Amino acid sequence: MGFAKGIHHFTTSPYYLNPSHMEHFHRNLKSAIILFHNIHHRQWDSNLTWFQLAFNIALHKSRKSMLYEVLLSYDHIQPINLEWEIFSVKCNEISLSDQFLTIELQLSTQMKALRYNQHVAYIYDPVEYAYNLHAQFTQKFCQSTKKILFLGMNPGPWGMSQTGVPFGEVKVVRDWMRLSGEVGHPIKEHPSRPVLGLACHRSEISGRKFWGLFQELCKEPQHFFQHAFVYNYCPLAFLSSSGKNITPAEFKADERKLMNQICDEALCKIITLLQVQMIIGLGKFAEKRASLAIKEYQLDNIQVVSIPHPSPRNFMVKDWNREATLQLIRLQVIDCFTPSSNST
């Protein structure tokens, strides 16, 4: 009957799930909602507006364009763009430090979504609650590519957990790096491990040793950061119910597998972004993880070595400053940390 009325029959191409941009969009949106609301999953609909905004303005990894542009082939302009004359920001306009921070924030979000064993009673994420200081540190000292990346394990309770700076002993962060600002608190805080920010009077021994060496060698922080940067393999600090620090190395192998996959990927993104030529692991754990990560992601021409970890639990090292200095000399990078070589 329809054909008699002049209605024509048209066929469409077969429906395939994988090539559909919209199906990809919906699946990614669903994954993001699940990840974001892993804890408070009954409130999944409370942030849909923000998810929509985030997806519309996120840059497509390979196309370097917003999803809206990929789907509809023209720019996405919202009321806020017209009101404040804010328009698309392309990848090459984003600073290196902001790209670094984005990788870190994505990493901490992924890590917090994992389920940890019953021994982990508290999780501290200083990239989140100490973001003010952490962003200051990154934006001040990570404005260019770096030859050397010092790789730590994860935040210590009196260092980065307080200041948001890797091995961030309070006096070093405040007086040598000249950073200042307020620090928030973890969602769940152990009473014997309070986060006090720059008001913390406890000293991070590892941080005092690490930065103390480079204060002595470099004199000023810019001489260190001209060629080097510091990054923790895992962004989270884990505490037991008693307040004992649990390092990633102390997790069982099956528990570490997914953690390592996530952290390896982020580490390789950081290495690529900073164009790192040498990774100096602070301890054997960091050295091993870096070696495995660059092998997995097939990153070439990167030397992976280590110096002893400055932790007081490292009883094998009697004079850490001497051991670390000798290793830097053997690696032929000691000149990177002297003011005379940095001024040329």
TrEMBL record:
<dbReference type="InterPro" id="IPR036397">
    <property type="entry name" value="RNaseH_sf"/>
</dbReference>
<keyword id="KW-0539">Nucleus</keyword>
<dbReference type="GO" id="GO:0000703">
    <property type="term" value="F:oxidized pyrimidine nucleobase lesion DNA N-glycosylase activity"/>
</dbReference>
<protein>
    <recommendedName>
        <fullName>Uracil-DNA glycosylase-like domain-containing protein</fullName>
    </recommendedName>
</protein>
<keyword id="KW-0378">Hydrolase</keyword>
<dbReference type="InterPro" id="IPR005122">
    <property type="entry name" value="Uracil-DNA_glycosylase-like"/>
</dbReference>
<dbReference type="InterPro" id="IPR036895">
    <property type="entry name" value="Uracil-DNA_glycosylase-like_sf"/>
</dbReference>
<dbReference type="GO" id="GO:0003677">
    <property type="term" value="F:DNA binding"/>
</dbReference>
<keyword id="KW-0227">DNA damage</keyword>
<dbReference type="Pfam" id="PF03167">
    <property type="entry name" value="UDG"/>
</dbReference>
<keyword id="KW-0234">DNA repair</keyword>
<dbReference type="GO" id="GO:0017065">
    <property type="term" value="F:single-strand selective uracil DNA N-glycosylase activity"/>
</dbReference>
<feature type="domain" description="Uracil-DNA glycosylase-like">
    <location>
        <begin position="140"/>
        <end position="322"/>
    </location>
</feature>
<dbReference type="GO" id="GO:0005634">
    <property type="term" value="C:nucleus"/>
</dbReference>
<dbReference type="GO" id="GO:0006284">
    <property type="term" value="P:base-excision repair"/>
</dbReference>
<comment type="similarity">
    <text>Belongs to the uracil-DNA glycosylase (UDG) superfamily. SMUG1 family.</text>
</comment>
<keyword id="KW-0238">DNA-binding</keyword>
<dbReference type="InterPro" id="IPR039134">
    <property type="entry name" value="SMUG1"/>
</dbReference>
